[in-house]
Write a structure and sequence with these properties.
Layout lengths: L1 H61 L7 H4 L7 E6 L5 E5 L3 H12 L9 E6 L5 E13 L2 E10 L1 H74 L6 H31 L8 E4 H18 L3 E5 L5 E4 L1 H17 L6 E7 L5 E8 L21 H6 L6 H11 L3 E7 L3 E9 L5
Parallel strand pairs: 7-9
Antiparallel strand pairs: 1-2, 1-5, 3-4, 4-5, 6-8, 9-10, 10-12, 11-12
The structure holds adenosine-5'-diphosphate.
Length: 430
Amino acid sequence: MEIFGRSRRRLAFAYALIMCIFLAVIIFVVHVAMNWSMFSEQAQELSDAANGVAEVQVMYLQNPTETVDENRYYKSANDRLFFYIFTEDKQLIRFERASFRIEQFILDVIESWNIPEGKVEVFRHSNETGRLTTVMMTSKKIINDNTVQTLYVGKDVTALYSGLQKATYAQIFLGFIALLIASAIGYFMAGRTLVPIKEAYDKQKQFAADASHELRTPLAVAMASAELLLADPSIKDPFLRQVLEDLKSEVKKMTNLVSDLLMVARSDNNALKVKIQRIDLTEVLKQVIRTMSPIAEKKNIRLTGKNFRRMFIMADEQRIKQLTIILVDNAIKYTPEGGAIMVRLEDSDSAHAIFSVIDNGVGIAPENLDKVFERFYRVDKARSREMGGNGLGLSIANEIIKIHDGKISVESKFGEGTKFTVELKVNLTK
Ligand code: ADP
């Protein structure tokens, strides 16, 4: 059944979506956490280096006679750390240079420095060849008596950040693989979940088919009995005769309902027998008009055929007749006294036969248009019941169309009329 396939796909999709959001959140959180821990670790190192360099610089400022030992500045340094000390009038007095490749960029950053003292910032730069460099930098004021100098300390963390980026890509890749596996499992599990529901559904369909089949015989007996009693001349009491008439009409309604139910149940079980043969569609339409004319006349409705010409198609004659009767019967039911109904053969290409049933009756409101083919759906329950309808007509019509691989559509203007259009294949092969 299509409905189970659809539900299974929907369930699997919902499951995959939840997994996707879940994985994305996890990857994001891990990325942020790794970024944060790496940043805080490096920031700590930079602050320590800044404090160390500043201390040494203060020491030399206080003892100007002492000869400068570069190594003292940089006892804890490694090759990726660099620093620059500027006087107040922007004179560079001491430094451990950054690598030649990035130095100009570092000096540009220092030139436009507006970050509070002690705060660590990440700067990114890509050179002409597109190579990306990531540095972390901080600044510190060195104050001694009346001299104020500024120290900038930084570290090239390109390798660390690219490592982090690679780790994130690896996570995304693994997440994607996990998602694929989860989707497959979701699809499989959704299928398993639907098995008992499908079984229950099949049982219920079988029950409807069996029940309606079994009800046919007692109904036929009840009908025959009512007719027998009505034919008995000894029953003269008009009241009794009326009771029998009512009984007969109710049994007839029930017989119709049961045979409609059986038809629907059989089509669900694919147990509907069809006999596809070459038929003249126009002949079928003419027959239906002949059969239905007396009923239309009772309501003073004009039932006509239009554009009739020979139109041979491959189809099940009885079913096409049944389909047309449903459409014409509805048109009569939902068209007030004195209205008009037309069964028209439409122009079409050589592969299709199209006909429509058009009435100028009560019409169907736009919001109900796509529901009329549902089982037991009736726009106006009271009116439908009064007309002998049970809400199954159009769903049966739809089933017949499905068997014939055709199409049925409806257009309507509320209060003005309705047009049902049926499209059938000329050369149906079954
Ligand atoms: P019913 O037995 O109630 O006629 P159907 O399945 O044949 O059931 O039709 C479903 C509903 O669609 C009807 O109850 C009616 O409200 C609406 N309908 C069908 N055909 C027409 C029509 N020609 N004009 C107006 N309403 C219609």
